[in-house]
Design goal:
The structure is a single chain. Strands 1, 3, 4, 6, 11, 14, 15 and 17 form an 8-stranded antiparallel β-sheet that branches. Strands 2-5-16-7-8-9-10 form a 7-stranded antiparallel β-sheet, with no helix packed on it. Strands 20, 21, 23, 24 and 25 form a 5-stranded antiparallel β-sheet that branches. The N terminus is likely disordered. With 429 residues, the chain is mainly β. The protein is built from 1 helix and 32 strands.
């Protein structure tokens, strides 16, 4: 059974809306295509149709929905959800994995289209023939002319080429106003009303494309492929569709910053625009950007308040080099929300730092250099005889070196020789 990954990252600077999942399908529960659609009464995570005509059979392969155009005759395929979602969304984020496994085209040509709107044919026909005004937004998949390569477009603009399995993110705004969301690249994005963005992985392939029919709703979708003499194999997986009709988050963030002070501490500041049922904030710290430990908690100031509320704390003991911070908001029932970006501040090295530890036969050196580069490390006894010599590359920040030399008891000198400096440190074992 594959693991389902849920996406909860959309928001306006962690905005006042969370985005609830209204459709999810990863094709892992059955090897039969018929298990995933119901023409008249589909479940929340079912299609109305998964159809292939003439020369284009569909199947479940490795828990993916596959269409395979085997001959050069004209043929079409589609999957459709013409039953409306249980909510009436005005903002959609549609995510799925797509791969053009193989294709028979040697030039760039249109392959298929993905539509979102409020009415689609129940017989699997091309929706552009009789349902054009019901299509709010759509994009196209193109062969790129390279086997297994594809591009995406909107009829006028065409993206770069992509190969292999890619995650497609189709973001559509029909709210009546400009809003923001967190993109797949982790950066905040702005999208105008009745426009859409399309992402391939973390690449924003198409941006701010105008809706085809702005008056149409966005509560149904359809994929339609028609081939004219071209062979192809393509796969879909991990569908996740999220809307904007669920609960409000306690906090709307405006900013979160970290800056070094004149006292070599780090000032952490953040601002909120609105707070509802907010309990407190927690700040976490890391020296590598991955492993975080608790730094401090601070109570909420602006509970049930609209307007700018400012917060500030100080990290009195930052490490030399990079310091990373993340901000977590906790509401009154214990629910947590993270600020979308980890921030950092660097504390410069004023003097090189070397810490020496002995553990049995092992010698450990923790070195923080003034600058990055190659150094010659020499360990000598008190008479000046070198007992260990090695070239080491030191990066900015802390460098941990282990030396298994088995030194006897006595006094030793550690020398670090770079192109412009020679440093010496004495230690006893």
């Amino acid at each position: 059974m594959k693991k389902t990954l849920l996406f909860w990252g959309l928001g306006l600077l962690l905005s006042d809306l969370t985005y609830g999942q209204i459709f999810q399908q990863n094709f892992s529960t059955s090897p039969m295509v018929s298990s995933y659609f119901n023409a008249t009464a589909p479940g929340q995570n079912q299609f109305n149709r998964i159809e292939n005509l003439t020369h284009q059979p569909s199947s479940i392969v490795d828990e993916k929905l596959r269409f395979e155009k085997k001959s050069t005759g004209n043929s079409s395929a589609n999957f459709t959800r013409y039953t409306a979602f249980s909510t009436n969304p005005t903002f959609l984020q549609i995510k799925f994995k797509y791969q053009l496994v193989a294709n028979g085209s040697t030039s760039t040509s249109s392959q298929s289209k993905f539509f979102v709107g409020d009415d689609f044919p129940t017989n699997g026909a091309d929706p552009e023939l009789n349902y054009s005004n019901s299509i709010h937004s759509f994009f196209e998949f193109f062969y790129s002319g390279v086997n297994g390569g594809f591009k995406v477009g909107n009829g006028t603009a065409l993206s770069n080429q992509y190969t292999g399995q890619q995650e497609i993110t189709f973001v559509i705004n029909n709210t009546g106003t400009t809003i923001g969301y967190a993109g797949p690249n982790g950066q905040q994005q702005t999208i105008l009303n009745d426009t859409w963005d399309l992402w391939v992985g973390t690449d924003k392939a198409l941006a701010g494309v105008a809706a085809k029919s702005p008056s149409a709703s966005i509560n149904k979708f359809m994929f339609f492929a028609r081939y004219n003499g071209l062979t192809a194999t393509y796969e879909f997986d991990d569908f996740e569709i999220h809307d904007n009709t669920t609960l409000t988050l306690p906090v709307t963030f405006k900013s979160f910053t970290a800056n070094k002070t004149s006292n070599a501490t780090v000032a952490l500041k953040w601002e909120t625009i609105e707070e509802k049922n907010n309990s407190h904030f927690e700040i976490y710290k890391s020296t590598d950007g991955e492993n975080f430990s608790f730094l401090q908690s601070i109570s909420a100031k602006g509970n049930d308040f609209k307007g700018i509320t400012a917060y500030a704390i100080e990290d009195l003991n930052p490490v030399t080099g990079d310091n990373y911070y993340k901000l977590v908001q906790i509401d009154k029932d214990g629910t947590k929300s993270e600020y979308p970006n980890v921030i950092s501040a660097r504390i410069a090295v004023l003097e090189p730092q070397v810490k020496i530890f002995t553990k049995g036969e092992t010698l450990e050196l923790d070195i923080v250099p003034l600058k990055e580069g190659l150094n010659e490390l020499v360990i000598s006894d008190i008479s000046g005889r070198a007992v260990y010599v090695k070239n080491v590359y030191l990066s900015m920040g802390s460098n941990r070196l282990e030396i298994n030399k088995g030194l006897s008891s006595g006094v030793y000198i550690v020398s670090l020789k770079s192109s412009d400096k020679n440093l010496r440190f004495k230690f006893s074992k």
